[in-house]
């Protein structure tokens, strides 16, 4: 069980800054050395789906999830903003809540996903707004699905791009195309999965036009024991998003204090999220 | 009859004899006629382009729209339970060619690169063949608009949205119950601009618009009534009649207000009623914010023509005065050998009418040929002009009736200009006229 003591804004900035230095080497290696390497027989569709399923299963906790997160948003000609908040989710019915604690301007704002609908609540106006999966969480480069359980094998059809070297890592590269009728943040995703660990190393997210929208790096993975899963659940402790449309913009997410204990049933309700700002 | 023929012959020979003067004056009359034909062609062309574009993209010739109010201050531009309304329309409007139903809305569009506010039009592309004829698609396929969650945008909007075919646009709007809702749409077609219409209009499948506004399948934005060609000029009368028929059928009607639906929100929200009220408008009402350009064009055209005609009339009168002065002895001789005053009057009148008719016909032919030539050249108009013309190239619409009208008008004006000098010529006494030196 991780320590639940919340860090202050200054401490959060220090954590984010230190992480940035550590991750620097990883990112430059990943971004510079994405090249085809060892030749191997092309994977069949079934094998690709199996691989995706393994990626998903590795991350899923099959129960409730609560974590604290820090999010640093860098934008061109703007002051960097550090967000802090909580993520709650339930695997069983795919319910999901994000609520912001900091900065003060965003305190009490949150997202609630119930019945496959994503709702945004702003206590300043006291209104709920229905949003789609393309919604930039808090106006950053992150999407709701970045905080959620991985459902790649359910949401996407994979195509094999062969084995590729990403720095020191050997990765299974694939292109994922969104299945029709699903509300997805990105319809096309290129994915690099570490061949040894089955952790995601890198993602490139595209529009259907082929335009690259975002590149994501997953430099640090961590595991925690989940009672409901009766095993370890892996999660990316750090994710870096680089906006490919507004090149100067980027977002760093740190996921902390992961907790798999059951959550109260009334947490995934509008009333609960509204109560957080009272 | 013989006198008439003689006078006519004299008038004709006189014109031949004074051919330099006749050609100078005739040239001026012809130029004004040609200009009249061209200006008429331009204003008719703009009017037709505006009507054609508007009645395909955003309006029928007559529309049945309306507002639904949940509370006193909150209205939505929808027609609930539209099918019985459509039934009344079909029964009471025999001039009807076909109808289409359109969703209406106003929303925020957000792409990965930018955002803008736009009018959202819900279309059923499978039942709108004319729609495809009006829009020129530069990228993508307009038929893909049949798939839900798709969107058609205009080239001009790319400046703000910077999207390509396949890119996603998020549309955000308030539902009729005041809840903010959002949907994602995939860009399937990019159309060439059609002037002002393309500044703020986008098109989505009507099902998508219903999903955005959380409307039921029996709710629409407006019923667009397209009239048979011969009934189109009578849209205002047909709209007034339909308004009365719908009222008799038991529907609550809004007061007649010749403005676009989106200009009525403020008025409607101020009114205390709730529920559904229907509104009947014509395409000119829905484009009232644009038709001022047409009116301005007509005013400018009229002003220009009045000035030109005044110059031509003055020219004709002066020339006639000179001709009469030069031909005073001729008038005296004709009077001395028995020609009556009426004969002199008609001789000069015939002369000017002949000149007017010949010149006007020649001018009309030149004007029509120039108009046809300009149309064939497909001359591009600057962006600011496209804004009002709703077309990217100049189109002059010259109709036979307008050409004949221009010829008749110029001929009559020429005759009227010559009336007073001819009358004065007829009043000359033979003895004075014969002894005139000058």
Rg on CA atoms of chain B, Å:
30 Å
Provide the helix percentage of chain B.
40-55%
Give the CA-based shape of chain A. globular
What is the CATH H-level superfamily of chain A? Lipoprotein localisation LolA/LolB/LppX
Order of strands, main sheet of chain A, comes to: 1-8-9-10-11-12-13-14-2-3-4-5-6-7
Number of helices of chain B: 16
CATH topology assignment of chain A: outer membrane lipoprotein receptor (LolB), chain A
Could you list the spans of chain B in which at least 5 consecutive residues all have pLDDT below 50?
Answer: none
- Assembly type of the chains comes to heterodimer
String of helices and strands of chain A: HEHEEEEEEHEEEEEEEH
User: In percent, how helical is the residue content of chain A?
Assistant: 10-25%
Low-confidence region ranges of chain A: 1-16, 18-22
Overview of the molecule:
The complex is a heterodimer of chains A (278) and B (438). By secondary structure, chain A is of the alpha+beta class. Chain A has one domain: outer membrane lipoprotein receptor (LolB), chain A, CATH 2.50.20.10. Chain A is built from 4 helices and 14 strands. Chain A has helices at residues 9-32, 45-59, 152-155, 270-275; strands at residues 34-36, 64-74, 81-90, 95-102, 110-114, 117-122, 127-131, 156-166, 169-178, 188-194, 200-206, 212-226, 231-243, 250-259. In chain A, 39% of the residues are buried. The radius of gyration of chain B is 30 Å and the shape is elongated. Chain B folds into 2 domains: 2-52 and 290-434, no CATH class; 60-286, no CATH class. Helix content of chain B is 54%, strand content 19%. In chain B, 43% of the residues are buried. With 438 residues, chain B is of the alpha+beta class. Chains A and B meet through strand 7 of A and strand 7 and strand 8 of B.
Write a compact overview of the structure shown.
The complex is a heterodimer of chains A (278) and B (438). Chain A is α+β, with helices and mostly antiparallel strands and 278 residues long. Chain A contains four helices and 14 strands.
């Amino acid at each position: 069980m991780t320590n639940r003591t919340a860090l202050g804004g200054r401490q959060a900035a220090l954590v984010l800054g230190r992480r940035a230095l550590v991750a620097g080497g990883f990112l430059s290696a990943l971004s510079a050395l994405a090249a085809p390497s060892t030749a191997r027989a092309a994977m069949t569709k079934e094998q690709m789906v199996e691989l995706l399923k393994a990626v998903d299963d590795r991350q899923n906790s099959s129960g409730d999830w609560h974590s604290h997160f820090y999010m640093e948003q860098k934008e061109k000609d703007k002051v960097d903003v550090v967000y802090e908040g909580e993520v709650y989710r339930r695997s069983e019915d795919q319910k999901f809540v994000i609520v912001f604690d900091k900065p003060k301007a965003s305190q009490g704002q949150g997202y609630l996903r119930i019945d496959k609908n994503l709702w945004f609540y702003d206590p300043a106006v006291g209104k709920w707004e229905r949003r789609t999966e393309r919604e930039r969480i808090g106006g950053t480069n992150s999407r709701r699905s970045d905080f959620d359980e991985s459902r790649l094998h359910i949401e996407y059809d994979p195509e094999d791009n062969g084995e590729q070297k990403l720095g020191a890592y050997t990765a299974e590269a694939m292109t994922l195309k969104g299945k029709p009728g699903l509300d997805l943040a990105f319809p096309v995703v290129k994915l690099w999965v570490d061949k040894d660990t089955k952790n995601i190393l890198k993602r490139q997210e595209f529009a259907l036009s082929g335009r690259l929208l975002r590149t994501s790096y997953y430099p640090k993975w961590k595991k925690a024991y989940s009672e409901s899963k009766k095993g370890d659940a892996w999660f990316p402790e750090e994710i870096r998003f680089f906006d490919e449309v507004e090149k100067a913009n980027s977002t760093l997410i740190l996921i902390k204090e992961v907790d798999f204990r059951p959550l109260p049933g009334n947490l995934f309700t509008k009333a609960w999220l509204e109560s957080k700002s009272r | 009859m013989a006198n008439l023929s003689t006078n006519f012959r004299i008038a004709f020979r006189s014109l031949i004899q004074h051919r330099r003067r006749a050609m100078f004056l005739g040239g001026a009359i012809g130029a004004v006629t040609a200009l009249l034909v061209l200006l008429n062609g331009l204003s008719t062309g703009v009017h037709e382009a505006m009507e054609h574009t508007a009645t395909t993209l955003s309006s029928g010739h007559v529309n049945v729209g309306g507002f639904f109010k949940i509370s006193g201050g909150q209205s939505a531009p929808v027609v609930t339970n539209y099918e019985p309304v459509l039934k009344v329309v079909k029964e009471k409007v025999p001039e009807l060619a076909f109808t289409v139903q359109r969703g209406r809305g106003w929303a925020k569009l957000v792409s990965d690169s930018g955002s803008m506010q736009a009018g959202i039009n819900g279309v059923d592309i499978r039942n709108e063949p004319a729609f495809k004829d009006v829009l020129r698609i530069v990228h993508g396929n307009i038929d893909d608009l049949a798939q839900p969650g798709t969107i058609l945008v205009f080239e001009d909007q790319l400046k703000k949205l910077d999207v390509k075919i396949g890119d996603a646009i998020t549309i955000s709007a308030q539902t009729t119950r005041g809840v903010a809702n959002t949907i994602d749409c995939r860009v399937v077609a990019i159309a060439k601009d059609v002037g002002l219409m393309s500044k703020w209009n986008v098109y989505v499948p009507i099902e998508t618009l219903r999903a955005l506004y959380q409307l039921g399948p029996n709710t629409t934005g407006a019923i667009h009534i397209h009239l048979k060609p011969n009934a189109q000029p009578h849209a205002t009368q047909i709209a007034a009649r339909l308004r009365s028929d719908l009222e008799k059928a038991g529907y609550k009607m809004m007061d007649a207000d010749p403005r676009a639906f989106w200009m009525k929100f403020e008025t409607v929200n101020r009114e205390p009623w709730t529920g559904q009220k229907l509104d009947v408008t014509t395409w000119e009402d829905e484009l009232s914010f644009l038709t001022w350009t047409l009116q301005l064009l007509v005013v400018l055209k009229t002003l220009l023509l009045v000035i030109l005609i005044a110059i031509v009339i003055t020219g004709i009168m002066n020339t006639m005065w000179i001709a009469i002065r030069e031909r005073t002895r001729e008038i005296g001789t004709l009077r001395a050998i028995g020609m009556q005053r009426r004969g002199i009057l008609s001789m000069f009148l015939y002369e000017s009418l002949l000149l007017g008719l010949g010149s006007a016909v020649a001018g009309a032919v030149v004007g029509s040929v120039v108009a046809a030539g300009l149309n064939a050249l497909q001359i591009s108009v600057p962006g600011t002009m496209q804004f009002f013309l709703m077309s990217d190239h100049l189109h002059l619409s010259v109709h036979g009736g307008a050409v004949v009208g221009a010829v008749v008008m110029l001929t009559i004006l020429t005759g009227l200009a010559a009336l007073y000098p001819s009358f004065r010529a007829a009043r000359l006494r033979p003895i004075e006229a014969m002894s005139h030196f000058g």
